[in-house]
Amino acid sequence: MLNFNKVPLNIEDEDSDNSSFYLAIADLMSGVLMVFALLFITTLLQLQEAKEQLSQQRRIFVGELVGHLKGNEIDVKVNEETGEVSVREAILFDEGSAQLKPEGKAELSKFIPLYSQIIFSNPDFEREISRVIIEGHTSSKGSYETNMELSLMRSLAVTRYIFSEELQFPNKPELTPKIMAAGRGEIEAEPEYDNPSDRKVVFRFQFRGENPISENP
């Protein structure tokens, strides 16, 4: 006959071992989570610091750009917040045309070398400005398709002039790889209103990591 009084009962010891095991796992998981939390916080701080440095570089560049352009007789409009430079359509092209006028070339021959000079005057500007986007814009007069095509053809005409032998300036070999042409059509124009100020060519710089599509109205 089996005597249950003589059978060793180690249930309490097994429970104690299991509790120690689970506590060790919990401590390990807490440590892992703590490491991930610290890494996450460190990454956020680094991203914030990089964003602040980018904003500072943008402010410095825009300040330099505004200061230089105001000191020269160049018929352009500068957005003092974004650094976008607008050239009126009437200076560059005849109505409905994508062929640069002589006076348009003359204005670009004054503006482009100065714009390039500012970009390459500072190693930080040169390194961080990845693109100079030349955007064609139209008013809402005419069809969407026609305006989109015309705006692209005009941005390409300006780009081709910069690339051509007609225009020479010291930093041309460094600037040309950064240039990108874009047609914006009537996207930013006032709807159903033929506003002459909507018809323009815009020079916009893009820092590394930024969206190449302008979000400014």
From TrEMBL:
Gene3D superfamilies the record matches: OmpA-like domain
Alphabetized UniProt keyword annotations: Membrane, Transmembrane, Transmembrane helix
Highest taxon of source: Bacteria
Residue stretches making up the OmpA-like domain: 80-209
Keyword hit for Translocase: no
Keyword Cytoplasm: no
Coiled coil: none
Listed transmembrane segments: 20-45
InterPro entries in the record: Bact_OuterMem_StrucFunc, OmpA-like, OmpA-like_sf
Name the record gives this protein: OmpA family protein
